[in-house]
Amino acid sequence: MKTRRRRRRRVNLGDVTQKDFIAFAKILKSENAPCPLVHRITEYFGSQNPRFDNKRFMAAVGICGR
Questions:
Q1: Rounded to 5 degrees, what angle do the CA atoms 35, 38, 43 make?
Q2: Less Cβ crowding at N or C end of the chain, within 10 Å?
Q3: Residues spanned by the domain of 20
């Protein structure tokens, strides 16, 4: 008898909700994350989710002068 292998469910940023992005922004803001890091994270989120609003996320983080 063959045993069935479980397939790992691949998680991508499509599974991340607006609530999660808000939490990321709050964490980055509270930790005073450096601007280059915030920019890289914002670019990555935007590349993974076409509906991600870079400007809105940057405004929520509020650290960088953009």
A1: 125
A2: N
A3: 16-61
